[in-house]
Amino acid sequence: MLDEAIATCRQIADGLGAQNQAWEDSVTEIVEKFDEVSETFFFKTMPSIPVTRNCNRAASAALELKSAQDWDSFGPVLEELIANAQNVIDKAGMRGTTLT
Fold it and tell me: Global pTM?
């Protein structure tokens, strides 16, 4: 399930810098952190499902807005994605890592 979020975030980041480099940097950071935690035991347990599902939903919504070039709505959805990603990282045991 985390692999799906990583793939979606990669699609979001691809070319996003042309619109806003800070957005692309944030999504790229999410991918990097997810790659770091993807093999942790947490993702082999049931508690990982709700937080990862929330992250997948936010990533899917952000990708839809990027595809539609709805930049006014994209920013708030990206903030939601960052918050969900932070929750996933915290739950996976990487407390202290803060996404920007």
Answer: 0.88
Q: Is 12 exposed, middle or buried (0-12, 13-18, 19+ CB in 10 A)?
A: buried
What pLDDT is stored for residue 24 in this prediction?
A: 97
- Is the distance from CB of 42 to CB of 92 less than 8 angstroms? yes
Distance between CA atoms of 68 and 50, rounded to whole angstroms? 27
CB < 8 Å & 24+ apart, contacts of 10-18 = 11/63, 12/59, 12/62, 12/63, 12/66, 16/66
What single DSSP character describes residue 96?
T
Domain definitions of the chain by residue range:
2-91
Is the pLDDT at 96 greater than 80? The verdict is no
